[in-house]
Design goal:
six-stranded mixed sheet
């Protein structure tokens, strides 16, 4: 790339990210005959070419992971932890490069959101590697002892999305590895580059076959989900794709962990300190340009301050710049890919066609080179409108008025999704009472979204199956084994 970037008093000269890139299979970096283009969403120019994996590559990776599994599982957990910590140290040594590459391939601003993602992901690695699932004695008497033990599943297939392509590599692999499984990872074809660079470092740290990465189209994911040699699929992405993965995995009765879509409500209760909440609610809704599953996608505001809140939210939004992620003055970046950009164009057109009140944004400038979509606020559209019922996955959010708390709880729950929610109110006990009634796997009270290291994360209803993180997430990567010992 060769272009220097100035951030405050620092001047950063990124390395050449054009490649070459290779697959990670059985400890080796493999070059492929065919490649596909990866685009910078701020310019829609080709950033690099990524290796196009084939069925043969994927089957080789699965085979390597299967062969590596017995020896990796036989290591003591402390031995696996030591190797994972070396992996963390290698990533830390290249942190600045990853932050730049993440901004270039995903679009998020380097100085804030890309830096945040890498700085969130890296320390999580050693913290999670310390975790242990200890054997439990369930019953012990004069005649017998009953123990619950856990054993790894084998090969874990990890399929990750394009919105947090650095973070999800690590969130998917580290829990699988520390519990004794081996991994085959398939990144999104929109954002494969961070994963492939991570693979280059992983090849220097892990025994051959323990961690494998194959990039390419969606057909590679189906090979993973159907393979009888894969014991588990862990997937983050849309509910539509999640249902296909679940159906495909059913043929071999493999475990699935699905973290899927959401239509997350933010509820400002009548006593909410709404003036203080405006910047936090904005970030909860528009962080990463709305491209995250737990973004606040429906903001419910009590009628007593609804108009004032909308005005304040619009005023704050006007201070936020949408631009190239490598520009240090940008607060929000472009939409990552044209597929999602086109979906947003359609949703914007629906909003315009129906004549909804749009106090900010509402028009996409399609003459721009990049996938730029303006921050858009829709004021009190009908509850049955697409902008309320669908997950936009972009920087457009409705602000809805309500009069009665019972009514807003019912409206918040009236969705097939149940991933996240935020509740805002000065009376913490009352806010917690509302949070308890929201049918969602994650609820944040008087704050935006956060991910404590050891807290389980998952969704209700069609937002997911099983959980990630914490002891519960580790347990999902293992088989229960009940052992009954007769005493002599």
């Amino acid at each position: 790339m060769g272009v220097s970037i100035t951030e405050g008093t620092r001047t950063i000269t990124p390395p050449n990210f054009n490649g070459p890139y290779g697959l990670l299979i059985d400890g080796n970096i493999i070059q492929t005959e065919d490649h596909f283009d990866v685009y910078n969403p701020a310019t829609n120019s080709v950033l690099a070419s990524a290796p196009q994996g084939t069925r043969e590559h994927m089957e080789r990776a699965i085979g390597a992971a299967k062969r590596a599994f017995p020896a990796w599982a036989a290591l003591a957990a402390d031995e696996r932890e030591a190797i994972i910590v070396k992996f963390f140290e290698a990533l830390e040594a290249h942190k600045e490069e990853f932050i730049t590459l993440l901004s270039l391939e995903q679009g998020k601003p380097r100085h804030n959101q890309a830096t945040f993602e890498v700085n969130l992901a890296n320390p999580w690695i050693p913290n999670t590697a310390k975790s242990r699932l200890e054997d439990k004695v369930l019953v012990e008497d004069d005649e017998k002892r009953v123990e619950l033990r856990r054993s790894p599943l084998g090969v874990v297939g990890a399929i990750i999305p394009w919105n947090y392509p650095y973070l999800h590599v690590l969130w998917k692999t580290v829990p699988a590895l520390i519990t004794g499984n081996t991994v085959v990872l398939k990144p999104s074809p929109y954002t494969p580059l961070c994963a492939l660079r991570i693979g280059e470092l992983a090849a220097q740290v892990f025994p051959p076959g323990v961690f494998n990465i194959v990039t390419g189209g969606n057909e590679l994911g189906q090979i993973l989900t159907e393979s009888p040699d894969v014991g588990m699929i862990t997937f983050t992405g849309s509910t539509e794709t999640g249902t296909k993965i679940m159906a495909s995995a059913a043929g071999t009765i493999k475990r699935v962990t699905l973290e899927l879509g959401g239509n997350d409500p933010a509820i400002l209760l009548p006593d909410a300190d709404w003036q203080d909440a405006v910047p936090q609610v904005f970030n909860a809704a528009f962080g990463n340009s709305g491209q995250w599953c737990i973004a606040a996608k429906r903001i419910y505001v009590h009628r007593s301050f609804h108009a004032d809140f909308v005005n304040a939210l619009v005023d704050y939004a006007k201070t936020q710049k949408v631009g190239d992620g490598m520009d240090p003055t940008s607060d929000l970046g472009p939409i990552n890919n044209r597929m999602q950009y086109d979906k947003l164009r359609d949703l914007f057109e629906d909003t315009r066609r129906n004549g909804y009140d749009v106090p900010l944004g509402g028009t996409i400038d399609e003459s721009l080179d990049g996938n730029f979509v303006p921050v858009t606020i829709v004021n009190n559209p009908p509850e049955n409108s697409r902008i309320v019922q669908e997950e936009p996955f972009g920087p457009i959010v409705p602000v809805l008025v309500y009069d009665d708390v019972e009514d807003v709880i019912e409206r918040a729950n009236a969705t097939i999704f149940g991933l996240g929610a935020t509740v805002w109110g000065r009376d913490e006990e009352r806010a917690l009472a509302v949070a308890d009634r929201i049918d969602s796997g994650n609820v944040w009270v008087n704050q935006g979204q956060s991910h404590p290291d050891h807290a389980p994360f998952g969704g209700h209803k069609q937002s997911g199956l099983s959980v990630e993180h914490g002891d519960e997430g580790l347990a999902s990567h293992t088989n229960n084994k009940t052992v009954v010992i007769r005493k002599r």
